Amino acid sequence: MTTSRLPIVAVLAAAAALGQASPARAQRLELTLSPRVVTFTSSDPDTVPIVAAAPIQVTYRVRQNNGPWTLSVLAAGDLISGASTVDIFNVTWTATPAPPFQNGTLSKTVAQTLASGSGNVNPTATGSVTFRVANSWTYDAGTYTQTVIFTLSAP
Amino acid sequence: MRHLFALLVVALWPALAEAQTDSATLNAAFTGLARLSFSANSITFVDADPDFVPQVSSSPATITISTKARASSGGTVTLSVQASDDLRSGVATIPASHVTWTVSGAGFLGGTLSATAAQTVATWTGSGVRSGTQSFYFRNLWTHPTGTYTLTMLYTLSAA
Lengths: 155, 160
Prior knowledge:
The structure holds 2 protein chains of 2 kinds.
Chain A: H1 2-26, E1 29-34, E2 37-40, E3 50-52, E4 56-62, E5 68-75, E6 79-81, E7 84-86, E8 91-96, E9 104-105, E10 112-118, E11 121-134, E12 142-154
Chain B: H1 2-12, E1 18-30, E2 33-38, E3 55-57, E4 63-70, E5 76-83, E6 87-89, E7 92-94, E8 99-104, E9 111-112, E10 119-125, E11 128-139, E12 153-159
Antiparallel strand pairs in B: 2-4, 3-11, 4-11, 5-10, 5-12, 6-7, 8-9, 8-11
């Protein structure tokens, strides 16, 4: 009877070990945005065809990593103002430093790579991301909003 | 059984890819705007014999009107015109209603000039860039006092 309990204890111990390791792994990757609000001010499309927001700072750290890491962005949907929408692909970004950062266009369906690399990034590094929206006479007047999810991942 | 424990650990570990997320909120303001431009800022009706030219065409014959408007969803965009006064030459006047126009272009409407009420030149629904033309005519009569008459037409483009 004693020997038959051993595997159960061992499996529980393994599960406990994994559970205890979870907070430690959470510290392997760190990601912070500042500010978390990106504002595009209204402008005349003829004089300001592309409206730039103030840049946001992306601070990140990767530790205990032997493989690749990726920082991606995904919009939760189009820009929305009541029943009116502006396709999210009208929002682009430029980012520095390059590499590891790269420019791109927002998508609501496929996460787009904002930065990538391999190994560790330690101490903390910071990139600057400037979002821009294509201005148009065809948009409905309104105040639009949408959430953009930044994800730092490593295998 | 220790082999089983080892296998479990190996099998679970590769599935534990790690990710950290943060989010930002995009706010974009697109306020109502309207812009209006013309191919010419003045038109002239030359003198003519009323028996042969009862309706005098303007020179240039047409004016191209370009509009750009950003309206609320389903909002109405309206282009209107109103004369500042009747045609006036010193103390002599000819009613502004002696000037009429025809149009081309989606949303444009023919009409008669008025010094007392704005007349609709075009109307559309929603934001966009549109253009059309206006061709002006002056009703030529023997009863008009001689003189050189002028008036100002004030155009208003509004987006609701």
